[in-house]
Specification:
The complex is a heterodimer of chains A (380) and B (213).
Chain A: H1 8-16, H2 31-37, H3 42-47, H4 52-62, H5 77-83, H6 87-95, H7 115-137, H8 141-164, E1 171-175, H9 178-186, H10 188-197, H11 199-224, E2 228-233, H12 243-249, H13 251-263, E3 267-272, E4 291-295, H14 301-308, E5 313-318, H15 320-325, H16 328-342, E6 348-352, H17 362-374
Parallel strand pairs in A: 1-2, 2-3, 3-4, 4-5, 5-6
Chain B: H1 4-10, H2 14-26, H3 31-51, H4 56-77, E1 88-93, H5 101-113, E2 116-119, H6 126-136, E3 140-144, H7 149-163, E4 171-175, H8 181-187, E5 191-193, H9 196-211
Parallel strand pairs in B: 1-2, 1-3, 3-4, 4-5
Helix pairs in contact in B: 1-2, 1-3, 2-4, 3-4, 5-9, 6-7
The chains are: A alpha/beta (380), B alpha/beta (213).
Chain lengths: 380, 213
């Protein structure tokens, strides 16, 4: 075992600041896996969200612990609606579909119309939500705010319980850039057509949205009291859009959001789901030593190290298919490679590539954590 | 390209394509010629995608422009026949998964390439795929999924195709964000892809392999 000379929080902070640490911090996303480990379903946890701490804690104890809680969509239900796509709510509201025991799923439906762009421009995002939320969710903004307050209280309770055993919780707030919010509400197809057919209208709406998105996220993050804000992007990648589109419709807003969160003292994670390898070089423009770039395994993390080495802390990316279909020796080899190459010189947090699947093999999760906590080239 | 229409199509000039198609239909021009020039434009779009100057967004826009142009022609001349039906594809998102974005893009690109596509939608069970394969005698099965629940569902679907005795006549391709070579092997599929465009190219290869036998 590596002699540990830092607390978990010290280790995480130093890693984000690109400083040396005693070992790589290990922060897996194991919330959904923890359900299966306890024989529980998402339906039960949605009805009883106070069971989350106990469920994850049981797995934590069985695996000898890890360094911090990242959380998943399961932890932030109330906060999703106003600051992200609300697509889950949209899917349930529009289709009446609620696949029992399912993780977050998106159905592409056009719930926002072309006419809504002008409403956003005229009223701002919060003003627009007053009409929009009842329309798509059947719930008013005050009702959503009530749900948000409950989610914040739950976050604070859970964070306190974890803190009592020395485990920090990093992110209290999840937020998307305007591009991703609008893409979710217009549907990917219609939004893409909007970018070609009415780009100025889209940009005007994004400009009008941004202040409220920022205010809401910062307000929630401050009330929750956690150290970080998690910015998720999934629909603007170089796998879908050209650099021209990214530079015009996403990057300026992404940068403004990151700068706003950093200036408020928050650790900001830019989490890009899907393949964003073509976009990595843009992240060199982020404030140095203040941000994390996280990937679900679809972006080349080794390439990210080459480009972002002295700029941005990296997080990832043991992939779901490896955890579910691979062997412990496959997992060991991959984790060691991550630590050797992406962890070289510091600035790397070992994590799963997005949430570990519920049918992952226990021995693979165990091996990932064991190797993550015990392997360091400096000590081998 | 020596056609204004093909050029407008290739350049994704939607208003110009609409204008030219309306003018030429009104002038009583041969529908086949108009469609062929639109397809010439689509071929250029495909080349630009492969060379990296166009992205998925441009493919999506081109599909919309093409669809609208065809809808102007079809009421005049009746349903536009594909110049060549390359093959039949049954496609769907597997059981437990309701994501449809990737599947829909793939279905659109396959149709534009000349495949006849039978889209079963989302959350599709193995037997529904088997039934459709039997009914249509499709030679390609496309399974889409994003959540990790798709791992087992894809395998069970392939197993069902085998159990139904259809496997020798069906090529199976799996696609989606979490799909990898490891999953392809586990599920027993013939190919995997993370790109709708690449998936179309793989399907073209499937049918060309059959035709050279």
């Amino acid at each position: 075992m590596i002699p540990e000379t830092m607390t978990k929080w010290e280790r995480i902070q130093a890693t984000v600041s690109l400083e040396k640490t005693d070992r790589v911090p290990v922060l897996p996303m194991l919330e959904y896996y923890a359900l299966r480990y306890s024989g529980l379903t998402l339906v039960e946890l949605r009805r009883n969200p106070h069971m989350w701490y106990g469920t994850v804690r049981k797995l934590y104890d069985a695996l000898g612990g890890w360094d911090g809680i990242l959380g998943t969509a399961a932890y932030f239900p109330g906060m999703l609606v106003k600051t992200t796509t609300g697509s889950v709510a949209k899917a349930w509201a529009v289709t009446g579909t609620d696949i029992e025991d399912s993780e977050l799923q998106y159905m592409e439906h056009e719930v926002m119309t072309i006419e809504d762009y002008d409403k956003i421009i005229d009223r701002g995002w919060t003003g627009f939500l007053k009409e929009f939320l009842p329309r798509i969710l059947g719930r008013s903004l005050p009702q959503v705010n009530e749900g948000e307050e409950k989610a914040i209280n739950l976050y604070r309770e859970n964070a306190k319980l974890w803190e009592e055993i020395g485990v920090p919780t990093l992110f209290s707030t999840v937020v998307l850039t305007p591009m991703h919010v609008l893409s979710g509400y217009r549907s990917f197809l219609q939004f893409t057509l909007d970018l070609f057919r009415r780009p100025e209208k889209v940009l005007a709406a994004m400009d009008a949205m941004l202040p409220d998105l920022l205010d809401t996220a910062i307000n929630v993050a401050k009330r929750a009291g956690g150290p970080g804000v998690w910015l998720v992007c999934e629909r603007g990648s170089g796998a879908f859009y050209s650099p021209t589109f990214f530079e015009r419709f996403d990057l300026p807003y992404l940068k403004r959001m990151v700068e706003a969160f950093v200036s408020e003292g928050f650790i900001t994670m830019v989490y890009w789901e899907g393949d964003w390898t073509r976009n990595l070089h843009y992240l060199t423009e982020l404030p140095e030593g203040k941000c994390i770039f996280g990937t679900d395994g679809s972006t080349d993390l080794f390439k990210a190290k080459e480009i972002l080495r002295d700029k941005v802390c990296l997080l990832g990316d043991v992939p779901p298919d490896l955890l579910q279909l691979g062997t412990p020796s496959d997992v060991e080899a991959y984790v060691k490679r991550l630590i050797d190459e992406v962890g070289e010189g510091g600035g790397f947090i070992l994590s799963t590539g997005s949430a570990a699947p519920r049918k992952a093999k226990f021995e693979n999760i165990e091996k990932m954590l064991d190797v993550g906590k015990s392997y360091s080239p400096r000590f081998s | 390209m020596n056609s204004k229409l093909a050029e407008a199509m290739a350049d994704l000039d939607e208003s110009e394509v609409n204008k030219l198609v309306h003018e030429r239909v009104a002038a009583g021009e041969e529908d086949v010629a108009i469609i062929e020039e639109l397809r010439d434009g689509l071929d250029v779009i495909g080349q630009r995608y492969k060379s990296g100057s166009y992205f998925l967004a441009e493919l999506i826009f081109s599909a919309e422009i093409f669809k609208n142009a065809v809808s102007v022609i079809e009421p005049i001349i009746g349903k536009v026949e594909h110049r060549q039906v390359l093959g039949k594809v049954v496609i769907g998102t597997v059981l437990g998964d309701i994501h449809d974005l990737g599947k829909n893009i793939a279905a659109t690109l396959l149709r534009m390439a000349g495949f006849e596509v039978f889209d079963l939608g989302v959350d599709v069970g193995p037997q529904a795929f088997v039934k459709k394969l039997g009914e249509t005698e499709a030679s390609i099965l496309g399974l889409s999924g994003l959540l990790t629940v798709c791992f087992e569902s894809m395998k069970k679907t392939v197993d069902a195709v085998v159990a139904a005795g259809l496997r020798p006549n069906v090529k199976i391709i799996i696609g989606g964000g979490t799909v990898t070579e490891r999953l392809r092997q586990y599920a027993g599929a013939d190919a995997y892809t993370n790109s709708a465009f690449e998936g179309t190219e793989i399907c073209r290869q499937f049918v060309s392999e059959v035709s050279t036998i």
